[in-house]
Design brief:
The chain is mostly helical and 196 residues long. It has 5 helices and no strands. About 26% of the residues have low confidence.
Length: 196
């Protein structure tokens, strides 16, 4: 009986903690997120889709760390596994070559990496500048001390499957989540490049 009471108390406490966390998240959310005029876009790759994504991309990190406009989420319906497009085969693995020199803006890279609707690196990695993140992936705070080749870092961000076919990391390049310049920006941030 005492054990049943403890279980019930634990359930009540966990429910209260969850409710408090949701309330904190809701209160911390921006009151007026940037909005774009909604557009109808067919799912999947194509010139029209690419053009719309490129046109909207400038607003994704407006002012440094603004969130991706909610309207653009409709452009990526394949995040839902229940929809037919969510059952499409993944893009083929893309092996790419880093075209140096590294010409990234670390401030933009930081904004991309910590934005949960953009790069969202922080979901799985702790990042430089004191950004505590998830621990599914390795900490990237000391990546500069590891002396990894730029080719390796670029490939891992572009399409991690070239090294780890079953990795949990998003496939940024083939899925057009990040373009080459944005990956340069993220690299400049995690490698501690000065400037920006």
């Amino acid at each position: 009986m005492a054990q049943k009471g403890r279980q019930m108390n634990r359930t009540i406490v966990m429910g209260a903690v969850t409710a408090a966390a949701l309330l904190l998240v809701a209160c911390a959310a921006p009151t007026s997120p940037p909005r774009l005029t909604p557009v109808a876009v067919s799912p999947g790759p194509g010139a029209e889709h690419d053009t719309l994504v490129a046109a909207a991309r400038k607003d994704w990190v407006a002012g440094g760390a603004a969130m991706m406009p909610q309207d653009l989420l409709d452009m990526f319906p394949c995040h839902e596994e229940e929809l037919p497009c969510g059952k499409l085969a993944p893009q083929p693995i893309q092996r790419v070559t880093f075209r140096g020199p590294l010409r990234g803006d670390p401030k933009k890279g930081e904004a991309i990496a910590i934005n949960v609707r953009y790069g969202n690196c922080i979901a799985c990695h702790s990042l430089p500048n004191g950004h505590d993140g998830g621990n599914i992936g390795p900490s990237l705070r000391d990546v500069v001390q590891r002396n990894l080749p730029l080719d390796y870092i670029f490939q891992r961000i572009w399409d991690v499957r070239a090294y780890s076919p079953n990795a949990f990391m998003p496939v940024y390049g083939p899925n057009k989540v990040l373009n080459e310049q944005e990956i340069h920006d993220v690299m400049a941030f995690i490698l501690g490049v000065k400037g920006g």
